[in-house]
Amino acid sequence: MNPRPGSVTPGIMNETTASASFHVAALYRFCRLERFEELRAPLAAFCCGRGIKGTLLLAREGVNGTVAGTAAAISELVDYLDSQPELAGLDVKYSQAAEMPFHRMKVRLKREIVTMGVDGVDPLESVGAYVAPDEWNELISDPDTIVIDTRNDYEVALGTFKGAVDPRTATFREFPEWVEEHKGDLENRKIAMFCTGGIRCEKATAFVKSLGFDEVFHLKGGILKYLEEVPARESLWEGECFVFDERVSVTHGLEEGEAELCRACRRPLTPAERASSKFVAGISCDYCHDSRTDEDRVRYAERQRQIELTAKRGRRHIGS
Question: Coil, helix or strand for 165?
Answer without folding.
Answer: strand
